[in-house]
Amino acid sequence: MKIFLIIFIMYLSISVILFFFQRSLLYHPFENNYFEDNLTVSIDKIKITTKDNIELLGWYHKKDSKNYKTILFLHGNAGSLENRIHKINHFKNMNINFLIIAWRGFSGNKGNPTEKGLYDDANSAVRWLEKEGVMKKDIVIYGESLGTGVVTEIAQNNNFAGIILESPFTSMIDAAKNKYPFLPIRFLLKDKYESDKKIQNIKSPLLIMHGEVDKIIPFWMGKKMYDIANEPKYFYSTKYDNHMMEYDKNLLITLEKFLDSLN
């Protein structure tokens, strides 16, 4: 009987700790996965003000907003804008404009990241682009990892030019269960990001990219998101890519073909 009591107390203690510190486990603004990438594409550093009066840092690259689509890049749960330089450098060779924003609490922005807060940040970026004369029908929303959960929220029942999801999850509930299968995740989790309940509300052309050896978000989640999504939809995968996909020749060709199909 005593051993069961000890196990119960340990289980309860872990659950309580997870509940109160879960956002520290989910959001990692100071983690740096990439070093010394030189920015080779021209950008303007801009500020976007959210409805709750938080200023967000953004990098804006404008080639021709009248004739080219504009990517709104929503990054994952870790690191700064600099950690995406190795990706956005490739956009200079494409007929595309782009805006990448840093979430609240990231890249020196004030505030603390939450599910609702990130939705507000993304919608603020869309409004900023609209004020610049870029309409939703000319915006391609690109979500990376956690950013895919934000994309599925703001893209549903909207008329965006296209949607790109890199390493998407079905829901944060499923992703957390994958790491902590013994805990009552559904009841503990504050930021649920239930993308699988929203993707069928997306009518825009969709490209999903996922590595088959992803150790953070299992490949089956990306495949399921593709399976339940509406047409037109496209799927790109490799047998060797982990969570952050390699921006190699094949991926870039896939990206360019998808973007060209939207014109």
Care to describe what's here?
The protein starts with a helix and ends with a helix. The mean pLDDT is 93. It has 263 residues and is an alpha/beta fold. The chain is globular and about 70 Å long. The chain has an eight-stranded mixed β-sheet, sandwiched between helices. It has a single domain, classed as Alpha/Beta hydrolase fold, catalytic domain (Rossmann fold, 3-Layer(aba) Sandwich). The chain contains eight helices and eight strands.
User: What is the number of helices?
Assistant: 8
CATH homologous superfamily grouping: Alpha/Beta hydrolase fold, catalytic domain
Number of strands: 8
Tell me the CATH architecture: 3-Layer(aba) Sandwich
Uncertain runs are none
Mean pLDDT: 93
The total domain count is 1
The chain-level structural class is alpha/beta
And the CATH topology?
Rossmann fold
Strand order of the largest sheet: 1-2-4-3-5-6-7-8
Q: CA-to-CA gap between the ends?
A: 68 Å
In the CATH scheme, the class would be Alpha Beta
| SSE sequence, one letter per element | HEEEHEHEHEHHEHEH
Largest sheet: 8 strands, mixed
Rg of Cα set: 19 Å
Shape: globular
Helix content: 25-40%
Beta-strand fraction estimate:
15-25%
